[in-house]
Amino acid sequence: MSLLLMLEKILNIENMKLVLLIETALILFVLLILFLLKGKLAHLVINTFSKFIKNEYRPDLYKIKADIEHPVSWIIFSVIVLFLIPVIPNLPASVAIFFSNVLKSIMFIAIAHTLLDVLDLIINRVIKKDIEKHVDSYRGDNRTALQYLGVIIKTVIIIFVAFSVAELWMDNVQSLLAGLGIGGIALALAAQDTASNLVAGLAIMLDKPFDVGDWVETDAGSAFVAGSVEHIGLRSCRVRADDGTLLTVPNSVMGGNVIVNGTKRSQRLSSMQIPISISTSADKLEQFRNELTEILEKDEHVVGDIKLNLVDFAPGAYIYHLRYTTSSDYTQHLIAKNSVNTKIVKLLADLDIGISNNVVYKIK
């Protein structure tokens, strides 16, 4: 029995127009109450759902509770009204289809909104757990990959929802897709640089030649880039140089050129030439070599093997070549060089050995 006949029988009203008016008012009242209570219903649904989640995840859910309550309330409202539309009497089919499409569109958009918020929650939680796990050595190794993955998933969700809504309002979405395909080819040809940057960004994410926080050096063609990586984006990377300058480098450059990653090397190599005066005796030369090697072996800033050899002769000088390694950290590397150079100067003074000032020599 329809709602219209039930009202007519209960109220004993023979005027069908009056019955229809009462029924319409009743439906509008129900919709108004439902609209006003949709927030409360969403709150109830989220709280009920949270009871089935492990205790360790509940604080994270509560953080986004305020963000997802609004879209969840619209999902609940849309679903309930969609079930009510078929029972509304004398509602023209075209009107019913129109309101159904409106509600479905709202529902799809609200679902997408909720999924995007939940996705952000999951990514942030995974990053947080990774930081806690590697608290002493974390450099963002997985953060970049997770952020890229999040962008890809979000893009897929948005595209899917956009075409789902389009299907509700357009008769021939396939023709639109075909047209977009042709237009996409033209757009791709016009935006080759952007496309290459996106592909290079994905390659950087997968191959991980460097991460956020790493010190990198590369030849960008128009400029030499050296600095700490602050951000890896879809189109470009941002590198902070020593002088504080922020360099924005296209991903195609960072992904297509040779990258020197100073952070991931285990040591830094340092070498220098020492032009000893030609008047120095052979005994003093040997003494200088032995004592300097012994001093550097005890230097806490020098790591690895120390090589000090007489490699060549130049007018007025014996050419010694010193080669040693230091920590990969650039600041520690400079401290080590200062320590080594100071000890060389002191030893030369102690042994009364002079150096030649007029030697220009390139180590072979």
Automatic annotation (TrEMBL):
Output the Gene Ontology cellular-component terms.
plasma membrane
- Residue ranges occupied by any Mechanosensitive ion channel MscS C-terminal domain in the UniProt entry: 272-353
Q: Which GO terms describe its biological process?
A: transmembrane transport
Q: Which residues form the Mechanosensitive ion channel transmembrane helices 2/3 domain?
A: 153-192
What the entry lists under Pfam families is as follows: MS_channel_1st (PF21088), MS_channel_2nd (PF00924), MS_channel_3rd (PF21082)
- Compartments where located: Cell membrane
Where does the Mechanosensitive ion channel MscS domain lie?
193-262
Q: Per the UniProt record, which residue ranges are transmembrane?
A: 20-37, 72-99, 105-124, 145-166
Instruction: Check the record and name the InterPro entries matching this protein.
Output: LSM_dom_sf, MS_channel_1st, MS_channel_C, MscS_beta-dom_sf, MscS_channel_2nd, MscS_channel_TM-2
Q: Which of UniProt's keywords are assigned here?
A: Cell membrane, Membrane, Transmembrane, Transmembrane helix
Q: Topology in the membrane?
A: Multi-pass membrane protein
Q: Which residues form a coiled coil?
A: none
User: Could you say which protein family the record assigns here?
Assistant: Belongs to the MscS (TC 1.A.23) family.
Q: What is this protein called?
A: Mechanosensitive ion channel protein MscS
Source organism of the structure: Fastidiosipila sanguinis
